[in-house]
């Protein structure tokens, strides 16, 4: 089964596989796990096992995310439509509004598609990523189809946290937690996916067994460079070197999104230092203080404070670590 490709999470896998084998899988499943743990991958595995029990090319394509996609334009409630993908039996929905918020036009397009097109013999799967980003309007549009879905339709939802999901959605799903694996398991898995063994070991320690984050960081050159800068910033924190930190951060003074992304990776490195990872340049009390500084800076960036001011203050406080 495709779900066997998911590392760890034995309880989740066995529960879902038993339900699939008995054809007793509820029509709505919510997978909850922090960003980078692989909740989206788990959802695609379950969809593949539901639609294609024998596996094969369609199941592999679904694991890669090559399915139909519900899209829309912000501010246009009638712009929603479903783009055709290689896998016709699966539709994915991911928020396209500001901050990744769901558009009601996307949900309405998905709903129309599954009600107005004939089902194949395999059925239909709908993948809804990060449903914590649904507002009440898009959630109400989803409820209309979740309450009385067409026969053979399986909804697979993911969220970063259970608390972030609207109660009206949460109450209609069976929920499973997606847990991190150990750094050692993570490193073995990522090395098997083609990541250099040393890089896999380093990133698995820094990102605490978050397989999706490790793969994203190792397989994208820009993200790899960002992690390297986060490590340099952590070294500056360990050395209480505000000047080095300010020089590194100067390139981000007009790039709020880039600054937030860098500080997020820096926060992960500082957290690794708290766990006493030998790969983290900053350790102990300094790591704890650096972590707090990063969290405060990320919050201020999200509150629309001028990035130059946020980063200048952040770097200056390195002297007191």
Automatic annotation (TrEMBL):
Write down the SUPFAM superfamilies for this protein, in alphabetical order: P-loop containing nucleoside triphosphate hydrolases
Please report the name of this protein according to its UniProt entry. DNA polymerase III subunit delta
Q: What is the lineage of its organism?
A: Bacteria, Bacillati, Bacillota, Clostridia, Eubacteriales
Q: Which InterPro entries match?
A: DNA_Rep/Repair_Clamp_Loader, P-loop_NTPase
Read off the Pfam families from this record. Answer: DNA_pol3_delta2
GO biological process per UniProt: DNA-templated DNA replication
Xref: PANTHER family: DNA POLYMERASE III SUBUNIT DELTA (PTHR11669:SF8), REPLICATION FACTOR C / DNA POLYMERASE III GAMMA-TAU SUBUNIT (PTHR11669)
